[in-house]
Design brief:
Blueprint (H helix, E strand, L loop, with lengths): L1 H12 L6 E8 L4 E8 L11 E6 L2 H17 L7 E5 L6 H5 L11 H21 L2 E10 L1 H5 L1 H6 L6 E5 L5 H13 L4 E8 L4 H15 L6 E8 L7 H13 L8 H8 L7 H15 L7 H14 L2 H14 L5 H12 L3 H11 L10 H11 L1
Parallel strand pairs: 3-4, 3-5, 5-6, 6-7, 7-8
Antiparallel strand pairs: 1-2, 2-4
Helix pairs in contact: 1-2, 2-9, 7-8, 12-13, 13-14, 14-15, 15-16
């Protein structure tokens, strides 16, 4: 199944050209030109939605893979649409020059610092002026560039809220300060790091050392996700890491699953709408995205409310549906059921009659509403 998913994602990547532009940036910071690839998803006319920004280092290798995953995950509503920018670092030594550190101090060299400034000013700040970009910004790197992204987390500007470090070539000098920083982060930050049994020994051991230290930090604002693969090496690990990392970052965004419904909603003694409101508040707080209540989630909470005879939740769902699904019967149908449960037949009938004047949706049909009306008369 996993291999089939990866195959699908790679095939999707072959059909993206119409959605992608390539730009050359004249950078005063670097004193040269650099090439980027830019993916802009389809944006509905008049939409005010802000989009996450995903910055991909070593974009000449990883960009299409990331875009394919973003397209797939957003299509199934596992993440919002997102803007993806890939920074090309072609050439035998380009990544090493861009991500250069001082061998004595372990800090970024002048060249590495300038490349960091380039990412900030010529990529993120420029795109934020051109496009509706949200506060959720993701930075992705592998091997040398995966170690480089740690310096954004360490010394700012901390404009990224999520980091995907794929088999980083960890500098031991960075482990202690990075660990201390993780313990003191004040805003929600996702950090994904992957390892593999097939990496060179030193690289593998340093990743394990960093991972072990990060796991010791007790900071709810620092959300650590780790993977240790047995098969892939430093060349193929991105194919495994990227979908897992993105899925993890946006897990709170995903529709309510059958498992969530059974274990978190049905078993709770609280009104079922509490779970729904809390979930969407987390989406806002963690991702900086105002997500519209989707039909899947509303129906999951509705099913629980019916099982529990939870009139309070039905009235809350009624208000939500009247606002977000204003042309449909849904809101007044929920309100009608709520009044039925509380024994207020008059108000139940009034809501059903009003529902009948709106459009059907899902299982809420004209026939269903007529049956409800007839049963109460």
């Amino acid at each position: 199944m996993i291999r089939s998913l990866y195959t699908l994602l790679l095939l999707l990547g072959l059909t993206l050209q119409a959605q992608i532009t390539t730009e050359t940036i004249e950078s005063s910071v670097l004193g040269t030109t650099r090439t980027i690839d830019l993916y802009i998803p389809e944006i509905e006319e008049g939409s005010l939605d802000q989009l996450p920004l995903i910055v991909v280092l070593e974009g000449h290798e990883l960009f299409n893979l990331v875009v394919a995953n973003v397209r797939f995950l957003s299509k199934i509503d596992y993440m919002p649409k997102a803007i993806v920018v890939g920074v090309r670092q072609e050439g035998q030594y380009q990544v090493a020059r861009d991500c250069e550190t001082d061998k004595n101090s372990g800090q970024l060299s002048a060249r590495g610092s300038n490349f960091k400034k380039f990412i900030v000013s010529d990529i993120v700040q420029r795109l934020s002026i051109q496009y509706p970009i949200s506060n959720l910004k993701v930075l992705i790197g592998k091997n040398k560039s995966a170690n480089f992204i740690n310096y954004f987390l360490l010394y700012g500007p901390n404009m990224f809220s999520s980091y995907i470090a794929i088999t980083p070539e960890v500098s031991t000098d960075i482990i202690e300060p990075l660990t201390v920083n993780a313990a003191n982060i004040k805003k929600t930050t996702n950090y994904y790091i992957s390892n593999s049994e097939n990496l060179p020994r030193r690289q593998k051991n340093n990743i394990s050392l960093l991972t072990d230290e990060l796991k010791k930090q007790e900071n709810d604002q620092f959300i650590l996700t780790t993977d240790s693969f047995s098969y892939p090496d430093e060349f193929s690990t991105p194919v495994y890491s990227i979908p897992i990392a993105l899925e993890g970052i946006f897990r709170v965004y995903q529709p309510i699953s059958p498992k969530e419904y059974r274990e978190n909603i049905l078993k709770s003694t609280l009104p079922s709408h509490n779970y729904l409101v809390s979930k969407y508040q987390k989406i806002s707080n963690q991702l900086g995205i105002q997500k519209r209540y989707i039909l899947n989630d509303i129906m999951a909470i509705f099913a629980a409310a019916q099982k529990k005879s939870d009139a309070e939740t039905l009235f809350v769902l009624g208000d939500l549906a009247i606002e977000d699904y204003s042309t449909t019967m849904l809101g007044y149908y929920f309100n009608g059921l709520g009044y039925e449960i509380t024994g207020n037949t008059k108000k139940a009938l009034k809501n059903y009659e009003r529902a009948y004047t709106y459009d059907p949706i899902d299982f809420v049909t004209k026939e269903l509403i007529l049956n409800k009306i007839e049963s109460l008369k």
